[in-house]
Amino acid sequence: MKILITGTAGFIGSTLAIRLLERGEQIIGVDNLNDYYDVNLKKARLERVKAYPGFTDVRADIEDKEAMAKIFAEHKPDRVVHLAAQAGVRYSLENPHAYIDSNIQGHMNILEGCRHHDIEHLVYASSSSVYGANTSMPFSVHDNIDHPVSLYAATKKANELMSHTYSHLFQLPTTGLRFFTVYGPWGRPDMSLFMFTKNIIEGTPINVFNNGKHQRDFTYIDDIVEGVIRTLDNVAQPNTDWDSGSPDPATSLAPYRVYNIGNNSPTELMRFIEIIEDCIGKKAVKNFLPLQPGDVPATYADVEALEKDVGYKPATPIEKGIENFVRWYKDFYKV
Prior knowledge:
- It contains eleven helices and 13 strands.
- It is of the alpha/beta class.
- α3 packs parallel to α5, α7 crosses α9 and α9 crosses α11.
- The relative contact order is 0.14.
């Protein structure tokens, strides 16, 4: 297959591209290499992907309508995995327009490309952030998600709504994946594991938000990528049992699906830090802070639907995943 992946210099995108290239697919990779975080890390990820035959590297902004239309027309992909987005909950308080440009306009351009080029299946990144003010645990795809607490979350919910519209109007099969705190080697510098590891090694204090009472469903990168591939191979179908009188938010009479993709096992922040300390062999200097605007205190994924439909089952213990990350960090940064 010829698969278009947006965000191929990203954490998930680069790892996914390699896995698909290894099984013989052709990948068209789109990224703009923006400077939201260290561009050198993005370039290093991209170099790994470029080492494989069958990879086409394209520089473009997803919010550029003409550029995206040209990419679809020239490369004629069979399927699309749309991962590129403006990420980060806290940054959405500082630069909200970046989220509208990338996450709303960008997603619109992807949907239009899929519509006009008979794409077999669009799989796109949503987020656990969409659960917002929900406190019922674990988070279920059958729950209502009408109360986001950050603009980032609101744009991700909008992506799901936009995708359903295109599935309904144009019979475009779409599947949204609500990622739960992805971590592992080649991860993002703005994520807690990366920042904690860097600061502990350097002896710099770490900021521990919500006074360490956060719980996160940390999900290892290999488990995430396995789930994305299984989902991509399982083209979204209409739910013929869908009832408009009691509508299920996760399915539809249209070829539309939304899934949680997480570890199904939340870890408390203080335990997370302890594991990092054990792997590094050094204690952290902790700066305890309250819950930040836009943050949710806990995330916990119900992955029953994804397990039932594609056989997804996360397999990496948090201790092993963090050990792998710390080893990668020390090697990559020559610590």
